[in-house]
Amino acid sequence: MEVSRVASPTPAQFRAVHGDMDRWQAVDFEVYEHLVENEYVVAPRPRPGAGDRLPPRKAADPASGPAPRETPPLD
Q: Are 14 and 36 in contact (CB under 8 A)?
């Protein structure tokens, strides 16, 4: 099975070609909805390979105590 390598139009390009939304058919709305959804899809983070290691998490140093917090002055 061959996969098509044709780029999808942007929602703006689709609207420019298909005209006013009040003249669209149901299938036009379906296609447009998918185009809008695909614009906002965030690519998944790459998974580390077999040889890649994530850096170890650093534990807080118990000797230093918690980080100082700023408190607002009392009026």
A: no
Helices (H), the chain: 11-18, 26-39
Contacts of 13 (CB under 8 A, 6+ apart): none
Which pTM was predicted? Answer: 0.47
Q: With contact defined as beta carbons under 8 Å apart, do 55 and 31 qualify?
A: no
Please give the structure tokens belonging to residue 63: 């000797």
- Most confident range (mean pLDDT) of 18-22, 39-43, 55-59 is 18-22
Task: Using alpha carbons, select from 26, 32, 30, 29 the residue that is nearest to residue 13.
Answer: 32
